[in-house]
Amino acid sequence: MHTFSFFIVLLIFIFFNVVTATQSQQSLSPPPPHGKSHHGHHGHHRCNAAKFFGYVRTSPTAFLNNQTELINEFLHAHNWVRSEYKLPALKWDENLASFARKYLMERYNDCKLVHSTANYGENMFWGKKLHWTPSDAVYYWYKEKTWYSFETLKCEPPPKMCEHFTQIVWRDSTHVGCALQHCKNNGTGMLIACEYNPAGNYVNENPLVHAAK
Ligand SMILES: *[C@@H]1O[C@H](CO)[C@@H](O)[C@H](O)[C@H]1NC(C)=O
Ligand SMILES: *[C@@H]1O[C@H](CO)[C@@H](O)[C@H](O)[C@H]1NC(C)=O
Fold first, then answer.
1. Which pTM was predicted?
2. Residue span of the signal peptide, if any (predicted)?
3. Alpha helices, DSSP H only, in the chain?
4. What is the architecture, at CATH level 2, of domain 63-197?
5. Mind listing the pLDDT tens digit for each residue in 180-192?
């Protein structure tokens, strides 16, 4: 119920070795779309998350220098996931995107995976290498579904996290805006942030169901 609801800060911190470990767990995931298997995307190779979501870029780094491409890719990945749960599509909100860009600029020097103090839902992703894409971030958040039960509304076993996933499939969130940034020193990596409004992740509420008013 809403009375005990509070905003849960979302955080993901992916070290390179954890990333590869996660990728090798892909056989645990549900079948990808189009009946294609994911075999061959394990080990030190990145999963082709854009392909998983059926997204075709106009160029490999289109989202880096074309804001329309960045918006299209983030929206496509989010709404692919939401359509899996028959949820209404998220709409892009330029104010949220602008907030995400400004906030990541504050993190430009330290590249730290630290949350903003905004009252939005906020998913963040850090990668040491610079090759991570909008689809990659959403894919890793989506993969948390492995640990989430819609029956018990629990994420198990500890210390698994599911809040990025539950924010993406939060029915009452209607708008999203994201940013992606390489940090000052290339060696410190890159950050991705998505802001959601209204914020999701109220305790003891089913993400897929309208909140009790
Ligand atoms: C940016 O991407 C969009 C969508 O693919 C495209 O229509 C537009 O021409 C691109 N803009 C530039 C400057 O390349
Ligand atoms: C950082 O990486 C980009 C390519 O992603 C490159 O263009 C740039 O020169 C690099 N900067 C430094 C300081 O190495």
1. 0.80
2. 1-21
3. 16-23, 49-52, 62-65, 67-84, 94-106, 134-142, 163-168
4. 3-Layer(aba) Sandwich (3.40)
5. 999 998 789 999 9
